[in-house]
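Thread: Newbie trying to understand structure tokens

Hi all, I'm a second-year student working on a class project, and my supervisor (Dr. K.) asked me to get a predicted structure for one chain before our next meeting. I've only ever worked with sequences, so writing a 3D structure as a token string is new to me. If someone could post the tokens and maybe explain what I'm looking at, I'd be very grateful. Here's the chain:
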Amino acid sequence: MTETPHPSGTIERIRAVSSDENLSDDTQKLSIVIIEDNPDDRSLIRRHLIQSVDFRCTIFDADTGARGVHLCREIRPDCAILDMHLPDLDGLGVLQQLKDCESEVSFPVIVLTGIADRGTNGRTAIFHGAQDYLSKDWITAESLSRTVVNSIERFHLMRAKRAEQVLKLADRRKNEFLATLAHELRNPLAPIRNGLELLRLASGDQELIAQTRDMMERQLNQMVRLVDDLLDISRISTDKLEICKATVDLSQIIHQAAESIRPMVDAANQNFAIELPVEPIYLDADFARLAQVFANLLTNASKFTHVNGHIWLTVKRDDETVMTSIKDDGIGIPVEHHGQVFDMFSQIGQPVERSQKGLGIGLSLVRRLVEMHDGVVEVRSKGLGCGCEFTVRLPILKEVAVASANPTNNEVANAGCLRILVVDDNRDAAKSLAMVLKLTGHEVETVYDGREAVDAAATLKPDVVLLDIGLPKVNGYEACRMIRSQEWGRRMKIIAVTGWGQEEDRQKTKDAGFDIHVVKPVEPATLIELLAELQTSTP
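---
Reply by user tm_fold:
Sure, no problem. This is what the structure looks like when written as tokens:
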């Protein structure tokens, strides 16, 4: 067995402990567990450890593998000395149990072997997580002491090296993510800029204007999805992602997800087939979140399937669960990378020449959202060039009290005429929103700071105030409080229209007196429908 040189930092720390003759506090000593069923061998090992000149130690021992595992889990020793042959578990079994809750043993283990099998058993033990091995017939106070010190030093060096590698990998992934984010945001910005120029040059060509408008809307929706995914990742990392469950029809979720990616599929001339059961399948689920799950999976399928390729979406019921399969004949995933596809910021098997790479967060979101619905998502692929299949398995709602709580159509309700005050320090945002609302039949006024908002509300007495938060002079929270403090402002509907969408932001607007919190950019149809609901709910 080859001895390794001692890195000065660790060995000096150990020797500093052993050289202090007045040291009596056990917490400053090395804690060592002996797992050995032979009492004579335990006694010998204990004497050798006590005689060590390299360190002082507190010794614990166990005579079975099970007791040793329990003892190690309880005290987390600096080192364990483990006999390979025990009455209940062998050494490898002990090592495996010490790793049950972790990917590796969290402290160095020295395995004791017999002279006849020390090479084979020793190498096997190291493969299963031991730090070193020592033949029982070679044990002396000096050899045992050196092996303990060497094992502790190697263990901490290896841990430090792994931690450094993890930090380097995290830093590399962060840089890749930021570069990809910049790329993904620039992609829709370019056609939006071109679209603005086309609108300027269209000269009344209604067909060109309509095509350009549709293109700009698609690109804007893509940017909104990117930002929404980023916000959802933030909520996941802080454990603040929430879902609102109701009785929903899976087929309607599938249709909405399919509609959201239809322009992408059509642009690539891909064949997209959907197979649904005849009978409806009801789930206790968040309609919007599950639509997000299937839209993300379909987006990936289209993105990584070639032009004129094929995508199949199939839903099959299996007793108390339903399995939704999204399969494609695209570029596929290497078999060895299947376990990484759901990791955050994962960018597996994506060649540079592909125009759409993604942020590497969509599948991580999918897994979390599926788990929040008590479901399971899995991936299958035979390798690069062999296509890919994602399956989502979800529990079926056994008893359905109502037919469905899903959105049933995309029609925009007519809200009638409301007096609306739009408040935003971004003048383009305020004016463009005001124009949309005026075209739908409302009376609209715009102001651009919090002080003007309070004064205008007092003069106009609007039915609804669309109020930004980050305003000059007086912020949106304070402006809302000032309006609410007046008799004329207590029944006014005040909607926060803001770029801040975290749960704490929603709580702040609620505490300030806002009725509703919506996040920018607001879909005009959604806002119009919201205004209609406010009008019908107002006595």
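A couple of things are worth pointing out once you decode it. The chain has a mean pLDDT of 80. The CA atoms of residues 395 and 432 lie 44 Å apart. Feel free to ask follow-ups in this thread.
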